């Protein structure tokens, strides 16, 4: 049984066969992969958060105690 999985390119929505021969999967091309990377780098895309923690909550003035 050889099922073929087809996904849509996240950038241009073109159909892409999901297998090891598809070098840019899930993207259809290097171009679409770079467009997506640029969107993440420009913070146009982000992973949603619960909003109850800020960036400053992750930092502390106290040194890290390894004991």
Keywords:
single chain, 67 residues, alpha+beta, Erythroid Transcription Factor GATA-1, Chain A, two-stranded antiparallel ribbon
Shape, principal axes of CA atoms: elongated
Widest beta sheet: strand line-up: 1-2
Calculate the mean pLDDT score and round it: 84
Measured distance between first and last alpha carbons: 54 Å
Order of helices and strands: EEH
Structural class by helix and strand composition:
alpha+beta
CATH class descriptor name of the domain at 1-44: Alpha Beta
Number of helices: 1
Q: Find the count of extended strands (DSSP E, 2+ residues).
A: 2
The profile of the biggest β sheet is: 2 strands, antiparallel
Helix content: 10-25%
Per the CATH scheme, the topology name of the domain at 1-44 is: Erythroid Transcription Factor GATA-1, Chain A
Strand content: 5-15%
Tell me the CATH superfamily of the domain at 1-44.
Erythroid Transcription Factor GATA-1, subunit A
Low-pLDDT runs of 5+ residues are none
Give the radius of gyration: 19 Å
Task: Write down the oligomeric state.
Answer: single chain
CATH second-level architecture of the domain at 1-44: 2-Layer Sandwich
Protein described:
It is elongated and about 55 Å long. Helix content is 18%, strand content 9%. The model has no long low-confidence stretch (mean pLDDT 84). The protein starts with 5 loop residues before the first strand and ends in a 26-residue tail after the last helix. With 67 residues, it is an alpha+beta fold. The chain has a domain at 1-44: 2-Layer Sandwich (Erythroid Transcription Factor GATA-1, Chain A), CATH 3.30.50.10.
């Amino acid at each position: 049984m050889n099922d073929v999985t087809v996904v849509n390119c996240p950038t241009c929505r073109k159909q892409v066969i999901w297998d090891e021969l598809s070098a840019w999967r899930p993207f259809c091309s290097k171009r679409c992969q770079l467009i997506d990377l640029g969107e993440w780098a420009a913070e146009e895309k982000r992973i949603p958060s619960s909003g109850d923690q800020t960036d400053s909550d992750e930092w502390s003035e106290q040194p890290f105690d390894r004991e």
